[in-house]
Amino acid sequence: MEEKNVLKKILKFWFRQKPDGGLEAKLGYRFRDPELLVHALVHRSFLSGKDMPYTNNNERLEFLGDSVLNMLTTEYLYRTYPNDPEGDLSKRKSAIVSGHACAQSSKEWDLGEYVKIGKSEAKMGGRGKESILADAYEAVLGAVYLDGGLEEVRAILNKFHFPRVSEIIVAEDFVNFKSDLLEYTQSKLHAAPDYKIIDERGPEHMKVFVAEVHLGDKVYGKGEGPNKKKAEQEAARVTLEMLKAEDAANAEKKSAASEKSAKPARYLGRP
User: Fold this and answer.
1) Which of 31, 86, 201, 226 is most buried (CB neighbours < 10 A)?
2) What are the start-end ranges of the E strands in 141-206?
3) Which residues, listed in sequence order, are joined to residue 215 by a DSSP beta bridge?
4) Of 121, 138, 147, 173, which residue is the catalytic one?
5) pLDDT of 149 above 50
6) 112 or 207: whose pLDDT is higher?
7) Domains 2-174 and 177-262 share a fold
8) Left (φ > 0), alpha (ψ -120 to 50) or beta: where does 51 sit?
9) Which of 131-140, 162-171, 241-250 tops mean pLDDT?
10) The domain 2-174: what is its CATH number?
């Protein structure tokens, strides 16, 4: 009975009830099976404490939408940058499909207004949380794919996501700090950084990971993020700053010592 009551509640298609036509009008796509969009908008926190199957949240659709987004982004980059090497295309792709980029694009749909989240999550600002928006964005893409096919998803990305590519790839997400740090340490120290996750806190749907960088027996930067990858990226960024600051300080000391030794000695004998 509880399951039917909750399903009845979320199947009212609230996303169609706004004066402007609701979420489908913003997407420019009308669902043949609107229940797909329902599930794309149900965050796991909304079902907490309810006797509901796991599959009623949006995580399976997010998994599908992530794959579709990756494939169409790869195709877009292949066609848009015909002369660029694979390495550059991979860096661009990482930025374009990142959680930050997806969350930013989701704001064009006001997606936070439509996502169903738990009361405690809402009190903690969940409707504006990047991880929730990004997951829902990918879930919506997955729902569109199942309902209308690949061309409908491509049309949505061409309208909302791909026009932002130039903005996305110059943003901080385009920088791969782990790659930059590895290149820096190999050339300067002949060593590779080692990453360790030293802490993991928070409930399952809003985890915070803490990573730190080890170089030899020395610990350098620490970083936090909503997943291990982002925590390591932040730790790499901090470490890179620390190493460059150390190099700059050492270069300054060497320069000062060089200037001091270059000064002519004062003649202390008789004129």
Assistant:
1) 31
2) 194-201
3) 218
4) 138
5) yes
6) 112
7) no
8) beta
9) 131-140
10) 1.10.1520.10
- Identify the active-site residue in 59, 62, 66, 173: 66
pLDDT in tens, 206-235: 788 999 999 988 999 999 988 888 899 889
66 is catalytic: yes
What is the rounded average pLDDT for all residues in the chain?
Answer: 86
Would you call 138 a catalytic residue per the annotation? yes
Domain 177-262, CATH among 3.40.1000.10, 3.60.15.10, 3.30.160.20, 3.40.50.720: 3.30.160.20
Can you tell me which residue has the tokens 């229940």? Answer: 35
Average pLDDT over residues 177-195: 89
Written as six digits, the tokens of 13 are 């298609």
How far apart (Å, rounded) are the C-alpha atoms in residues 59 and 261? 66
Dist CA 164 CA 143 (whole Å): 22
Domain boundaries, the chain: 2-174, 177-262
pLDDT at 48: 75
